[in-house]
Design brief:
This protein has about 425 residues and is an alpha/beta fold. Helix content is about 40%, strand content about 10%. It contains 17 helices and ten strands. The strands form three sheets. A six-stranded parallel beta sheet has the order 3-4-5-6-7-8. The protein has a two-stranded antiparallel sheet with strand order 1-2. A two-stranded parallel ribbon has the order 9-10. It is globular and about 75 Å long. About 40% of the residues are buried.
Length: about 425
């Protein structure tokens, strides 16, 4: 193992931003807090994206690990104890300096702070708490902060941290307890779920407190999230989606993130290394299904089953569900209720809302739907307007499937190219010469 020699702040930044790239945090803030004029920064609910790299890509968060030293030896982690990697650790003052200086230069509008486990969970959480306290109280930073809590840390530390962070997350790591026991034997499902329950309970209590004392501090105002690694263990998509559904139901999470397994270690317990790269299409399908769970009122058991445990690689989950339930179509858009409209491929939750509002004023036609944002090249097989379909269509699964395949689903660039790349502050060619450390 590399010993941490004397290194400057820029070298630490290079090591600890690269080490943080496997933590997923690409979300809008979910919190709304205006600056009071005495500090620096603000937090808008609509999002936190602010600055751009030299090639025009958006950079929003300073995303770092506090340290990549770790007492655990998780088989899938690049920072595991047994790996021979260069180690580095920030101090609370260094994180504060970086955050404030980058904010002043318009590089970031918020901080994402995670960490390896140094010495013990409580010791690490004390350092993270000291960092957030200095940022909020001494530096008067009022921007967005997303912090990863350390499973196994004391309840008191988790609660104190919650009053300083906007969003807190505790990584589930792997979908099942069996997978966790196999690849991360130092961690237990109980230690991961306990702080989740604490955050949920404390958030509910805090909402009641705010109603009584309107000027009181807010506890994790942007809610909590978690992350699962996909493809490191043999769970099916059905098992993963059921776990996500359970987390939303029991812990009121804002978001479950899915991270395609990336081979960074050679270990007999991990899947064999191939040239296929990370399972990014599978990750994409899980995100699509997750969207259906959160915004379209689907349940996990509707999307998949034990007989059909994995998503179709050719169709998104909503379209695949519609093809398997043609008996429920076509839907008359001038009469169908909101939830029924949500289940039509090509109709999103915004366009469904527009349809419900607009049809109070008159009868809708296909051109009206197009203006409302309905993707007719997908929806036309499943809807009627005034009892008529847009074109003559045979309500047969094979016929509709062939036509939908010709429309070619638009996949994200990283899925099409089967590549994985983390956006980085270092993409800006001017960053090195402008940064003050």
């Amino acid at each position: 193992m590399w010993l941490q020699e004397s290194m400057d702040l820029y070298e630490k930044l290079e090591i600890l931003t690269d080490a943080a790239k496997y933590d997923v945090a690409c979300t809008s803030s979910g919190a709304d807090r205006r600056g009071d004029g005495a500090g620096m920064g603000s937090c808008e609910r609509a999002g936190i994206c602010h600055s751009f790299s030299a090639d025009g890509r958006c950079i929003s968060l300073l995303k770092i690990l506090f340290t990549n030293e770790c007492i655990y030896d998780c088989k899938y982690c690049i920072n595991r104890r047994s790996n021979d990697v260069r180690r580095a650790s920030f101090t609370p003052d260094e994180v504060c300096t970086l955050t404030m200086e980058f904010y002043r230069r318009n590089y970031i509008e918020g901080l994402f702070l995670s960490s390896g486990v140094l010495v013990s969970p409580d010791y690490t959480m004390e350092l993270l708490y000291a960092t957030l306290w200095k940022l909020r109280r001494e530096c008067r930073f009022q921007g967005y902060i997303h912090v990863k809590a350390i499973p196994g840390a004391s309840r008191e530390l988790v609660e104190r941290m919650g009053f300083l962070a906007d969003r807190m997350s505790i990584n589930l790591e792997l979908p099942t307890a069996e997978g966790l026991k196999m690849l991360a034997p130092h961690k237990t499902r109980q230690k991961i779920l306990e702080p989740m329950r604490l955050v949920q309970t404390r958030m509910m209590e805090n909402k009641q407190e705010i109603q009584l004392y309107r000027g009181g501090p807010k506890f994790v105002p942007a809610g909590q999230s978690t992350q699962m690694i996909i493809g490191a263990t043999p769970e099916t998509d059905y098992q993963i989606v059921r776990v996500a559904q359970s987390l939303y139901d029991k812990f009121d999470l804002k978001r479950v993130f899915y991270s395609a397994f990336v081979h960074v270690n050679d270990d007999a317990a991990l899947p064999a290394r191939t040239d296929a790269g990370p399972p990014l299409l599978r990750e994409h399908r899980l995100y699509q299904a997750d969207w259906l769970l959160r915004y379209y009122h689907f349940r996990a058991e509707e999307l998949l089953s034990e007989d059909q445990p994995n998503f179709n690689i050719h169709f998104d989950p909503k379209c695949n569900w519609a093809l398997n339930h043609l008996e429920q179509f076509p839907v008359e858009v001038n009469r169908a209720d909101y939830r029924t409209l949500l289940r039509v491929p090509g109709i999103g939750y915004k366009s469904a809302s527009r349809i419900v509002k607009a049809r109070r004023l008159g009868v809708l036609g296909f051109q009206d739907l197009k203006k409302m944002g309905v993707v007719l090249k997908r929806a036309l097989y499943f809807i009627t307007c005034q009892g008529k379909m847009m074109y003559p269509v045979r309500m047969e699964e094979d016929y509709i499937a062939r036509n939908l395949l010709e429309t070619k689903e638009k996949l994200p660039a990283e899925v099409r190219n089967l590549g994985y790349r983390q956006l980085s502050l270092f993409d800006d060619v001017r960053f090195r010469e402008n940064v003050i450390v």
